[in-house]
Amino acid sequence: MIDKRAFILDNTGLAQPPHVPEISLYLASEAHDLWLKTEDELEEIGLPPPFWAFAWAGGQGLARFVLEHPSIVEGKRVLDFASGSGIVGIAAMKAGAAEVIAADIDPFAEAAIALNAGVNGITLGFCGEDLIGRDEGWDVILAGDVFYDKAFAGALIPWFAALCDRGAVVLAGDPGRAYLPKERLQPVATYQVPVTRALEDSEVKRTTVWRFT
Ligand SMILES: C[S@@+](CC[C@H](N)C(=O)[O-])C[C@H]1O[C@@H](n2cnc3c(N)ncnc32)[C@H](O)[C@@H]1O
Q1: Counting beta carbons within 10 angstroms of the beta carbon of residue 141, is it exposed (0 to 12), middle (13 to 18) or buried (19 or more)?
Q2: Which domains does the chain have, with CATH numbers?
Q3: Which residue in 8, 47, 108, 162 has its CB near the most CB atoms, within 10 A?
């Protein structure tokens, strides 16, 4: 079995996402083999696509928003859903959240999030279960870059709507992914987020932070 912590340290380097330079993360870059591996090559070594090794545009935008508007999370119980590297949850803790649970079903995400939280001097809770449809009383739900897959988005939209209806604040950062819902969303901020051309089709992605209404 792969030692996940060692794998992450071997295949990434500490870097600052360009739109959130006050946060450091273990990220893949041109300097690392992981950068160029195809999904088939990754599957051979037992690795799902390493979402946790990149700071996605939606997460960078949402993390920026939370740092600029700390009152959204101050003293609150926050869920960073589909946390990946943990970028959004780290921003929420830095902004004064009482507690952040980072949730991601990728088994490497837990190790990546622990490393990334540690390097930023904070602690995040972690949940590796699929939380879709559950409600554990969070005050704020943050979701960075989650509307890229039809089935995933289809499951998230009614869940986010239900959480919003019972009074939670639900915010999503999204750079115009294909399955972004068209209803019940109010834009609260827009950023130009530098991204990696090899992952995206451009060098900058216009990224909006949306609030469910
Ligand atoms: C594009 S990445 C975004 C990561 C991070 N939020 C960011 O913006 O950098 C999407 C993440 O969703 C996670 N994911 C997919 N299905 C999930 C589920 N049912 N529950 C929790 N996380 C999930 C993936 O493992 C991946 O880490």
Answers
A1: buried
A2: 55-212 (3.40.50.150)
A3: 8
